[in-house]
Amino acid sequence: MSEYTSDLLNLLNERGHIHQITDAGALDSLASKGVVTAYVGFDPTAPSLHVGNLASIMLLRRIQQAGHRPIVIMGGGTAKIGDPSGRDDTRQMLTDEKLASNIASIKGSFERILTFDDGPTGAVLINNDDWLSELGYIELLRDVGKHFTINRMLTFDSVKLRLDREQPLTFLEFNYMILQAYDFLKLSRDYDCRLQLGGSDQWGNIVNGIELGRRIDQRELYGLTAPLITRADGAKMGKSVDGAVWLNEEQLPAYDFWQYWRNTDDRDVGRFLRLFTDVPLDEIARLEALEGSEINAAKTVLANEVTKLVRGENAARSSEKTASETFAGGGAGEDLPTLSVGSEGLTVPAALTAIGFTKSNGEAKRKIAEGAVKLDGESVTDPTWVIELGADAEMKLSLGKKKHGLLVH
């Protein structure tokens, strides 16, 4: 027997997307009766979102799959302030031009994962700067600010943690939760939006918006948060040893994106297949039950499906082909990172650093001493070795089992 009556909450629940719901019974009833409009906000503080944002994007995809309407809010207005949630410091201020550039760059990720059209469930992308920058300060204080008490605001984790650590929280950031609450009020009025979605760290901000809608418009609004996604090893989702795992090709090549998912811990495979792909649940149950080396087939499915969703079919197919050629055949796939070695040659440490496998020549030398570096499958032991290539020659450079690159003349 299903836990919920609506397709929406059943889908979110069986895929592992639900952490908290403000009023599960009422939201379930609402979603059973007709189309619900729901939104998630994203701050465009970089030219690309990263894997840590993917869980929230998948929430919107599930909304659409269940026959409801998703709204993507680009926080062009709120990003000028910065969300203090989960941060120990104040965000860097961005110009209007930089924010507009970031939004344009990020938009493509949503266009791959959601369907934007004029239908009743067609996704909508909106910049909250459209209304926040039009707000008069006195108007905001008088009409919205009076519904917030300092006492209550001080109890929210985003504020309390910063104060407990005696780290500065600017008055500007303190206003973030008021503006986010106003977003929900505005979307409720203009788009009949009844549901805000977000990560578990957004619970306080979401509740503020629900209360504001109730106090000003006497309207019942709802909130649903997804669990914080961490890997089985305890690391935060979306980070690799080399930094953020970006969704955009310009920030991270498709092969590296694919490889991030292919390297998933055995314990995470089933959970990530449910959260980040559309693979049917019975097939996921079969894949996550695989043991030993067979689990690698499930990891390949995961890498292919997520890459196909985020980067497209060609990127997934090409990345798998490169991996197969690199690991199974001992060759060098065409998607591997490439470094041009000039006529004067290049030492192995310099090549490792230039191609991005190590952060410095000193680190590269340590890796050589550990026996982790190979050229065309042969271990390198001499850190002073100079790589020289003739015309049209190429050589595969490897660091450990997972980093491979192509050296060309």
TrEMBL record:
Protein name as it appears in the record: Tyrosine--tRNA ligase
As its record notes, the protein acts as a catalyst of:
tRNA(Tyr) + L-tyrosine + ATP = L-tyrosyl-tRNA(Tyr) + AMP + diphosphate + H(+)
* Organism, as annotated: Parerythrobacter jejuensis
**Residue stretches spanning the membrane:** none
What the entry lists under PANTHER family is as follows:
TYROSINE--TRNA LIGASE, MITOCHONDRIAL, TYROSYL-TRNA SYNTHETASE
Which cellular compartments is it found in? Cytoplasm
Q: Which GO terms describe its biological process?
A: tyrosyl-tRNA aminoacylation
Q: Report which gene this protein is encoded by.
A: tyrS
Its top-level enzyme class, in one word, is ligase
The record's similarity note reads: Belongs to the class-I aminoacyl-tRNA synthetase family. TyrS type 1 subfamily.
Q: Where is this region: Disordered?
A: 315-334
